[in-house]
Amino acid sequence: MLKKQELWESCVNFHGHSCGGLAIGFGAALYAWELFDAEGPSEDEELVCVAETDACGVDAIQVLLSCTVGKGNLLFNLQGKNAFSFYRRTDGKSFRLLLRPAPHMTKEERLALAMAGDFEKLFEVKAAPETLPERARIFTSYTCSLCGERVAENYVRLQEREVLCSSCYSPYSRGL
Ligand SMILES: [Zn+2]
Ligand SMILES: [Zn+2]
Predict the structure, then answer these.
(1) Structural domain contains residue 28
(2) How far is CA 146 from the centre of its chain?
(3) Are residues 26 and 53 in the same domain?
(4) 21 and 43 in one domain?
């Protein structure tokens, strides 16, 4: 297993600075490894993370768990909570890590707990929401008949029999 200090440094390099939020994500990622009995980043889309925050911590998840926005296995269900649900597709194991309230805990204290493997002092382990997000799909592209730009099928709108992108489409809500 790689040394935790090196792992932390790789998170700081990716994120651009060292902060308390990153320490939370670092702790969550290491805890997820322990709970999954894994020792390294996931293969392709095997692991999925649904984050309830888009703050600093998600960068540690991207670095350590290989759950990334680009691969589509880091998803956001923004609730303003420091909570991360993890799912492993191969065996269906899942859990949700919720940061315990400790508003006065410093970055150094959080980091020390993560380094020591005292994860249960940082997070409560809860059941993950049952529905595992489906795998990232690949969509056909269409050309918007107004701006001529290519747009993926799942973002296409129809207006007067024309295919439009969302930017060119005029919403018809009449304030309702
Ligand atoms: Zn930060
Ligand atoms: Zn358009």
Answers:
(1) yes
(2) 34
(3) yes
(4) yes
For the CA of 157, the nearest ligand: 2
Q: Which pTM does this prediction carry?
A: 0.83
Ligand 1 centroid to residue 13 C-alpha, Å: 11
112 and 176, same domain (yes or no): no
Residue pair 123/97 in contact (Cβ under 8 Å)? The answer is: yes
pLDDT of 34-90, one tens digit each? Answer: 999 876 665 666 899 999 999 999 999 999 998 999 988 999 999 999 999 999 988
Residue 3, burial from CB neighbour count under 10 angstroms (0-12, 13-18, 19+)? exposed
Q: How far is the CA of 167 from the centre of ligand 2 (A)?
A: 6
Query: Which residue range(s) make up the domain with 165?
Result: 137-176
Distance 140 CA to ligand 1 centre (A): 36
Ion ligand 2: residue ranges with CB closer than 5 A = 144, 146-147, 165, 168
